[in-house]
Amino acid sequence: MARAARSPRAAALVVAALIATALAVTPAYADDPGLNCAATATASISVTPSPVVYGRNAVVSWSADCVANTAEDALVISGPGFDPSTTIFPVGGGSQSVFISQTGTVSWGVTVVDLSSDTGFSSNLAAVSAPVTGVTTVPSVLGDTQARASQALTAAGYVLGSVGSVVDCDNINRVSSQSPSAGTVLLPGSAVSITIGRKPTPPAQCP
C-alpha cells in the first residue's frame, strides 16, 4: 500500500511538538550545574533551645541538598551570630553556637546562592524564629548604701562597677545616681556604676 505523503504544514507541526516536549522534560538550567543546584535546592534550619535565653548561647543547625551541587553553589546563613556578607558555607549542613544578646524574637534563614557570574541566582529556602526569654533589667539602687547596692546588683546578675562621689546632701553615704539607669535591659555579668552622695568640702555645709 502506498504511504500518503505528509504535507509540509503537518511536518512542521510534528517538529514543533517534539521541540516543545523536549523543553518541557529538560529544564532550561539543566546545562548549568550551578544554577541547576540553586534552583532545585531544599533546606531546613532549627535552633535549640527554643525559646532561646537572653545572655546565653544557642545552637543553630541547618542542612541543605540539591541536584549535583558544584563549587559555584553556596549556602548563606543569616541572623544573629552570622554575617551574611562573609559567612558562606558549602551546600550540605552544619551547626554553630551563637550568643543571644537581642530581645523580643530572633530569626535565622538559609539562602542558596549560585556564585557563577552568569546568573547570580539566589533563593530563600528556610527560616526559623524563636522568642527570647530570661531578659534581665538593671534594678534601682538609688538611696542604698554602697554595700546594699552591691548586694542588689549581684542578686540581679550584675557586678558593681566604678564608684564615684558627688555633693548630695539628700543622699550622704548613699547612692545618688547609677549608670545604666534602673530598668535598662543589660546582659548578665555587666557592670553598673554608682555615685555616692557626700557632704560638701568645708567650710561649705549642707543646709
Which spans have pLDDT < 50 for at least 5 consecutive residues? 18-28
Largest sheet data: 5 strands, mixed
**How much beta, percentage-wise?**
35-45%
Q: Overall mean pLDDT score?
A: 85
Order of helical and strand elements:
HHEEEEEEEEHEEE
Structural class based on helices, strands and sheet pairing? alpha+beta
Task: Figure out the total of helices.
Answer: 3
Q: Strands across the major sheet, in which order?
A: 2-8-7-4-5
The count of DSSP E runs of length 2 or more, i.e. the number of strands, is 11
Identify the overall geometry: rod-shaped
Rg from Cα: 33 Å
Distance between the termini: 130 Å
User: Percent of residues in helical segments?
Assistant: 10-25%
Topology:
Layout: H1 8-25, H2 33-40, E1 42-48, E2 52-53, E3 57-65, E4 73-78, E5 88-89, E6 93-99, E7 105-114, E8 122-133, H3 146-155, E9 159-167, E10 175-179, E11 191-198
Parallel strand pairs: 2-8, 9-11
Antiparallel strand pairs: 1-3, 3-6, 4-5, 4-7, 7-8, 10-11
Structure, briefly:
The protein has 207 residues and is an alpha+beta fold. Helix content is 17%, strand content 37%. The longest helix has 18 residues.
Model description:
There is one protein chain. It is rod-shaped and about 120 Å long. It has helices at 8-25, 33-40, 146-155, and strands spanning 42-48, 52-53, 57-65, 73-78, 88-89, 93-99, 105-114, 122-133, 159-167, 175-179, 191-198. The strands form 3 sheets. The chain has a 5-stranded mixed β-sheet with strand order 2-8-7-4-5. A 3-stranded antiparallel β-sheet has the order 1-3-6, with no helix packed on it. A 3-stranded mixed β-sheet has the order 9-11-10. Mean pLDDT is 85; it is low at 18-28. The protein has 3 helices and 11 strands; from the N terminus they run ααββββββββαβββ. By secondary structure, it is an alpha+beta fold.
